[in-house]
Amino acid sequence: MAEKFVGDYYGSKTDSIVVTTENWKIAKQDVNHVNVIFYFTNTYPNGDVTRSKYDIYIPDVTVSENNVLDFNNQFVFDQLEYSVIGKAYLINDIFDYDITITSEYNTSKLKNKIYRK
Q1: Which residues pair with 18 in a beta bridge?
Q2: Which candidate, 49, 51, 61, places its Cα nearest to that of 25?
Q3: How far apart are CA 68 and CA 65, in angstroms?
Q4: What pLDDT sits at residue 109?
Q5: What is the DSSP letter of 4?
Q6: Residue of 46, 70, 91, 96 with fewest CB within 10 Å of its CB?
Q7: DSSP 54
Q8: Which of 62, 68, 105, 57 is nearest to 90 (CA)?
Q9: Confidence at 61, pLDDT banded by 50, 70, 90
């Protein structure tokens, strides 16, 4: 089941004036799990570009039979413990996700559609 998710994905969205580009890489861990690595790049109106300081690595994401990734994971990133909760749906080569990443300091809600390269 995991093989259908494997690949590189790309997407972007505009929040007020900043264009955020996402790059995701999904690799098979075993038949029922994948590992997800992603990072963001921000482009500002003056032409400045910044990339997220680290790639975010989420191991052991569960794959379900109906083309869904079920995020219910704990992971350590930049010496902090995080949890990620949510779902991602794969329809053809479009990956539609809605996840929430929480640490002891903040919560980020991430939602977008990204496309297989």
Answers
A1: 15
A2: 61
A3: 7
A4: 93
A5: G
A6: 46
A7: S
A8: 68
A9: very high
